[in-house]
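Supplementary Note 3. Input sequence used for the single-chain structure prediction.
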Amino acid sequence: MSDSDQNPQPLPPQEPQRPQPQYGAYQPPAQPGYNTMSIVAFILAFFVSIVGIILGYVALSQIKRTGEQGRGLALAAIIIGFVEVALAIFFFILFAVVLGVAATHGYKTY
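The predicted structure, written as discrete structure tokens, is reproduced below.
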């Protein structure tokens, strides 16, 4: 038997094992969250149309600059706001016409 079998030499110090990078399926980078102003614009479009329209446009410009989500909410706020303004104008004109017709015919008792 040789001397090396009975008295093994110590192993040289080893570097700690680093975890190897795992290569898997492609994962797209995390998208930023929703634009807060687009959410607020969508909610306010139902109650205060003009403010919803204005905030919707501001949110669209912010989304374009920052790349956040919420473009659909901002567009919905603008569309809903304009529809409500158009309906308000229509009903105001209808009310004025009905009031004008009632005023010209006067109140008659039979």
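Helices lie at 3-6, 36-47, 49-66, 71-105. The chain is about 65% helix and 0% strand.
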